[in-house]
């Protein structure tokens, strides 16, 4: 049985003081023993939020990291910095980073290797554009993204990863994929992982859905066979996030 996971992606929201308040407000509300709860927060919020949630079930993730160890990379954050700050997860290859910061599959693959080397669990994002969906190339495109992301990643490493399927047309738009659409792609991702790594990795790797997840649609989406939880943007900034974490208690 795969454990469910609900991860918030705060994106570029919340100053350190706002972050401390939000984390403190959510903390007593997101204690669900059947769900791994992760807050992926802006780099500058990591240290204060780790302090706030200490002793709770909440784990902290970063929204990105660089693939070099240290040195002259002005503005970047290294895996060692994240580990030292108490980070357990890192989002890699979010569609916003692919689009605005021109991250490609090669860069994303390097980041995944580096995160795993430091025992940070990468949440590997993939997802098609509206045009790709409408022209019927979704499954081929996702397969290409997954093969690129997992290049030279061993089965022992892959089993630790989390994959997030986030159709770009559903992110921040309020236009959620139907549970059938989400399940179809998440199953295709699992089949793809099975082809690369075999049945054990395929059955254990966790695949999340992301894109306009909210308190009203979470239970139906998370009930799909190949969906192990969600990566939540907008709704992770509100107390509504607690209802998503407790989707099975509503
Ligand atoms: P959204 O964002 O929930 O606001 O659609 C999801 C994401 O981009 O991770």
Topology readout:
Elements: E1 4-9, H1 16-26, E2 35-41, H2 46-53, E3 58-62, H3 79-85, E4 89-92, H4 95-100, H5 105-117, E5 121-126, H6 130-134, H7 138-149, H8 155-158, E6 162-165, H9 179-197, H10 199-204, E7 206-210, H11 218-222, E8 229-232, H12 240-245
Parallel strand pairs: 1-2, 1-8, 2-3, 3-4, 4-5, 5-6, 6-7, 7-8
The chain binds 2-phosphoglycolic acid.
2-phosphoglycolic acid is lined by residues 9, 166, 171-172, 210-213, 231-235.
What does this protein structure show overall?
- The chain is α/β, with parallel strands linked by helices and 250 residues long.
- It has a single domain, classed as Alpha-Beta Barrel (TIM Barrel).
- 41% of the residues lie in helices and 16% in strands.
- The chain has twelve helices and eight strands.
- It has helices at residues 16-26, 46-53, 79-85, 95-100, 105-117, 130-134, 138-149, 155-158, 179-197, 199-204, 218-222, 240-245; strands at 4-9, 35-41, 58-62, 89-92, 121-126, 162-165, 206-210, 229-232.
- Strands 1-2-3-4-5-6-7-8 form an eight-stranded parallel beta barrel, surrounded by four helices.
- Helix 1 (16-26) links the parallel strand 1 (4-9) and strand 2 (35-41).
- It is globular and about 45 Å long.
- The mean pLDDT is 97.
- The site of 2-phosphoglycolic acid has 13 residues, from strand 8.
Q: What is the number of E strands? A: 8
How large is the count of helical segments?
12
Helix proportion: 40-55%
**What does the radius of gyration come to?**
17 Å
CATH domain class: Alpha Beta
Q: End-to-end distance, in Å?
A: 22 Å
Report on the biggest sheet. 8 strands, parallel, barrel
């Amino acid at each position: 049985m795969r454990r469910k996971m609900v991860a918030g992606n705060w994106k570029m929201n919340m100053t350190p003081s706002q972050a401390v308040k939000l984390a403190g407000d959510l903390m007593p509300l997101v204690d669900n023993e059947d769900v791994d709860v992760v807050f992926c927060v802006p780099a500058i919020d990591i240290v204060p939020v780790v302090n706030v949630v200490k002793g709770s079930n909440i784990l902290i993730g970063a929204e990105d990291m660089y693939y070099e160890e240290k040195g002259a990379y002005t503005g970047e954050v290294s895996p060692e910095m994240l580990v030292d700050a108490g980070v357990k997860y890192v989002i890699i290859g979010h569609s916003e980073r692919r689009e605005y910061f021109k991250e490609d599959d090669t860069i994303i693959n390097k980041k995944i290797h580096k995160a795993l080397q430091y025992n940070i669990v990468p949440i590997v994002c993939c997802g098609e554009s509206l045009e790709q969906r409408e022209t019927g190339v979704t499954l081929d495109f996702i397969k290409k993204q997954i093969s690129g992301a997992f290049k030279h990643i061993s089965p022992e490493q892959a089993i630790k990863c989390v994959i997030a399927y986030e159709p770009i047309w559903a992110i921040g738009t309020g236009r959620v994929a139907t549970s059938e659409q989400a399940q179809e792609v998440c199953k295709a991702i699992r089949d793809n992982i099975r082809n690369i790594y075999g049945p054990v990795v395929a059955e254990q790797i966790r695949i999340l859905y992301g894109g306009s997840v909210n308190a009203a649609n979470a239970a139906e989406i998370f009930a799909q066979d190949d969906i192990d939880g969600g990566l939540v943007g907008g709704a992770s900034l509100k107390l509504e996030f607690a209802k998503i974490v407790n989707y099975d208690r509503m």
